[in-house]
Amino acid sequence: MNSVRHNAVATLLFAFGLGCSSGGSLGSGSDGKAGSPATAGVGSTVSTGASASGGNPDAGGSGGASSGGPSDSGGASGGTTVGGGSTAAAGQDGGGGRGGTSGTAGTGGAGTNNTAGAAGTAGADGGNPSGPPMGWASWNSFAAKIDYNVIKGQADAMVSSGLKAAGYQYVNVDEGWWQGTRDASGNITIVESDWPGGMQAIATYIHGLGLKAGIYTDAGNDGCGFYYPTGRPAAPKSGSEGHYEQDFLQFSKWGFDFVKVDWCGGSKEGLDAKTAYQAISNAIKKATDQTGRSMVFSVCNWGDQSPWSWAPPMSTMWRTSQDIIYYGDAPDMARVLTNFDSAQHPTAQSPGHFNDPDMLIVGMPGFSAAQNRSHMALWAISGAPLLAGNKLDSMSRDTTSVLTNSEVIAIDQDLLGKQGVKVADDAGRQVYNKVLSGTGRRAVLLLNRTASAATITVRFADLGLGTTASVRNVWAATDLGSKATSYAVSVPSNDSVLLVVTEGASP
Ligand code: GLA
């Protein structure tokens, strides 16, 4: 990755109490190949029994086509290509929902898979199965210091906090679960003291909560955990290169429903991203064909080699920029905005296929309630994946209310899957417009990037609407009534106002 990351990771190591002096190559600024960075002493003691609750194969789908909506595009894309369809697959731990990972979302929809989608029993999300994935991922708050208990704790909190009820589904194990070891047959081996019962045990536990499970690897030989260790020893060979079919079949057999594939090795080795990720997509399809379990495929090559130009047909989501935060750093609104801007590739996006500005940092220490709201609004207006990255077991009520706001989530998850686009920019006083399903409905973000409070005006003509429209302030949950031609409001510096604008007079 880049020097920014390098420096940030050095900062992180200090945060862990390591520092470069103990850390081999990291201090050198080299590519890290040579290093044998510090053994950070993860020191976790995993005490729980492995098998947890044993999952509930009949947990019922979260998803399905419950929300219906225009042309039932939800059910359709849930059911196209991938999904492997089959009602059987749907019956397992809540499948049936978000099929269509690498399929041609939104097309067709007939056939068995549609049945599978419908078979979901209107699970927690009850929403749009081809919407941007919603869940939580371990990286932003835990870096590589993860084990069974960490993930279990956050999965439990996803339920108890109300995030599951609000539509969050995926519990994603990011880097740190695997130190790169394999047995003589090339099968991945893991540290059983960290993951009692193996990785299938945590997937089973997550499924038992009615949630879905995600896992992580790298497209190259050595993963990010080799080049930039954060809390564990540097892990050579912690990538899947040379083992794509074997590893993705393994993930599927373990029960994972989502896989994020990073690019540290791929980048260092100079791989062609489209070729590598296509091979991975093929391996995932093949695995799904064998197991009946679909997997969301998350391409994570940070916008290198313009993934928006090739990733949509092969994946559900593709990162468009560098990391939104480096562990140990404080959340920074400037990075949120940079990542938001970098994700603007509206023509690449469609139901089931999303630009990914990175996981959320909503609720991480250092962000104010207003910053959390703006960050969430920026992702919602983008129709971006909503993968929380904060600690779910200790979040404030404010954070919970931001992450679970049903109107904001509905904007993000809108069935059309559109990305909001900038329609006006008056020296940093910006207006973004997201076309929503239904008739004459728009989500609008008024974003003030200037150093002082400013009045921002949205002209209805810029939204493609007629002269009269009714306006609702989303975070305030307040209807503002009918307006003629435009609506103007004062927006604090570096803050935003999120609206829904509907053509016609208010009832
Ligand atoms: C990269 C990714 C992050 C995270 C880390 C893990 O930086 O972009 O999202 O997965 O690797 O090391």
Topology:
Layout: H1 3-15, H2 73-79, H3 87-91, H4 112-119, E1 134-137, H5 139-142, H6 148-160, H7 163-166, E2 170-172, H8 199-208, E3 212-218, H9 224-227, H10 244-254, E4 258-262, H11 264-269, H12 273-291, E5 296-299, E6 317-319, H13 333-342, E7 354-356, H14 369-382, E8 386-388, H15 397-404, H16 406-412, E9 421-426, E10 429-435, E11 441-448, E12 454-459, E13 468-473, E14 478-484, E15 486-491, E16 495-503
Parallel strand pairs: 1-2, 1-8, 2-3, 3-4, 4-5, 5-6, 6-7
Antiparallel strand pairs: 9-10, 10-11, 11-16, 12-15, 13-14, 13-16
Bound molecules: alpha-D-galactopyranose.
Alpha-D-galactopyranose is lined by residues 139, 174-175, 224, 262, 300, 302, 323.
What does this structure look like?
The strands form three sheets. An eight-stranded parallel sheet has the order 7-6-5-4-3-2-1-8. A six-stranded antiparallel sheet has the order 9-10-11-16-13-14, with helices on one face. The chain has helices spanning 3-15, 73-79, 87-91, 112-119, 139-142, 148-160, 163-166, 199-208, 224-227, 244-254, 264-269, 273-291, 333-342, 369-382, 397-404, 406-412; strands spanning 134-137, 170-172, 212-218, 258-262, 296-299, 317-319, 354-356, 386-388, 421-426, 429-435, 441-448, 454-459, 468-473, 478-484, 486-491, 495-503. The chain has 16 helices and 16 strands. It starts with a helix and ends with a strand. α2 packs across α4 and α6 (148-160) runs parallel beside α8 (199-208). It has 507 residues and is of the alpha/beta class. Bound molecules: alpha-D-galactopyranose. Alpha-D-galactopyranose binds at residues 139, 174-175, 224, 262, 300, 302, 323. Alpha-D-galactopyranose is lined by residues 139, 174-175, 224, 262, 300, 302, 323.
